[in-house]
Amino acid sequence: MVTFEELKKLDSQYVVQSYGRSPIAIDHGQGATLYGVDGKEYIDFASGIGVLSVGTADPEWQAAVAGQAGKLAHISNLYYSEPYIRLAEKLCTRSGMAAAFFGNSGAEGNEGIIKLARKYSWEKYGEGRGTVITLNRSFHGRTITTLAATGQDVFHKYFFPFTEGFRWADPSIDSVRQTAGDDVCAVLVELVQGEGGVLPLDPGFVHDLAKLCADRDWLFLVDEVQTGIGRTGSLFCFQQYGVQPDAASFAKGIAGGLPMGGFLVNEKCRHVFTPGDHASTFGGNPVAAAAANAVLDILDDESISRVKEKGEYLRAAIESMDLPCLGKTRGMGLMIGVEVSEGFSNKELCAKLNQAGLLSLTAGSGLRFLPPLTITKEELDKGLVILKAALS
Ligand SMILES: *Cc1c(COP(=O)(O)O)cnc(C)c1O
Fold this sequence. Notes:
This protein is of the alpha/beta class. The protein is built from 13 helices and 17 strands. Helix 4 (82-95) packs parallel to helix 10, helix 11 (301-321) runs parallel beside helix 13 and helix 12 crosses helix 13. The protein is globular and about 60 Å long. The two termini are 35 Å apart. The mean pLDDT is 98. Bound molecules: pyridoxal-5'-phosphate. Residues 105-107, 110, 139-141, 190, 194-195, 223, 225-226, 251-252, 261 line the site of pyridoxal-5'-phosphate.
C-alpha cells in the first residue's frame, strides 16, 4: 500500500504546486464516509467542494457511469446521442428554462453566458454594449475572463491584461444603478455567494434587480455553479427566490463527481447562439451526461425537499454547541457558512477539523460545510461529534 508520505513526495516532484492541500490522501469511500490511504475514516462535509451531490460511489450512479462507459464514452457534438438530450429535457422540465448547453466546468459555463449576453446585445443594439456588472465578493471562476468577472481584488493580479467589460457593484439596487451606464448588456450574480463567505443575497434586492434588468433589456444571469442541483433545497436556487433568469450556469454537483458544466437559457435567449457560435469538445459527453441523469433521478423532489431539513438540523446543532470559536451560521439548505469568532483563524479551525476526521471548507473569513445532499442522519451526527470534540 502506498503511504501518504510517498504520495506527497511524488506530488511535490511532479505536480505543479498551485494548490495548498491538506495533509490527507483519500483512497475510497461510500456515501459521506471516506477512507484515507492509511485506512483512517473521514466524514465528508465538503463533497469535494460541492461536487459529490449524491455522495461517493452511489450504486445507481455507478451503474449509470459503468453502463455508459461500456457502451459509448464519447462521440463529439457532430452527432446526436441520447444521454445529453435526456439530461437537457430533465433540466428544462424541472427548472422552467427552455434549453441547455453543456461544457465541462463552472468557469466555462460562465464564459458561455457572458458570450450569450454580448451576442444578444450586439445583435439588437450593435457595438459598445458589452459590459457585464457583477457583485463585490463574488466568485465566477479561474479563466482570464471569469477572473475579471470575479468581484474580489485578490484575483485581479499577475495575469494582465484581463478581459475588458466588467464592473463590480455592491449588492444593492442603488449601487447597481450607479455602476451601470449605457454600455451594459447584463448583470451576473450568485444568489448565495459561495467562495465569498456563504452570503445569501437579499430577496428584495434580487427582485428589484430582475426588474431593472427587464426594464433596461440587460440579461439577468445567475451563476448557479455552487447553488444549483439541489444544494440550497431546490433544484436551482433561483426557484426559491421566485425569479427566472435569462440564463443560469451550473457545474459542480451536476454529474456527481464527473466533470460537467454548462448553462440553461430561457425562451428569449434560446436562439441567440446559432451553429458555429459556441462549442466544447467534451460538452455533453455521454458518460458525464449519464452520470448527471442518474444524479437528477436520485435527487428527485422528495430527496431535495429533505436538503432543507438536513441543513436546518446541522445549523441548529452547531449553534447549540455554543463553541467560543464559532459564531452564527448562515446559508440555504446544505450550503452552510459558520462565522469564526475574533481571535480565531478559519484556516486553522478547518485544518483541525480535517485532521480530526471531518472534511471541511473555508469561505470568506468563516467555515463552510457542503455535505453530500444524500448524507444520512447517522453521518451528520458522526460529523457533529467530531466537530464538537475538535473545536471544544
Ligand atoms: C466553483 C465555482 C466556479 C468555478 O467552477 P470551476 O468548475 O472550478 O470552473 C464558478 N462560480 C461559482 C459560484 C463557483 O462556486
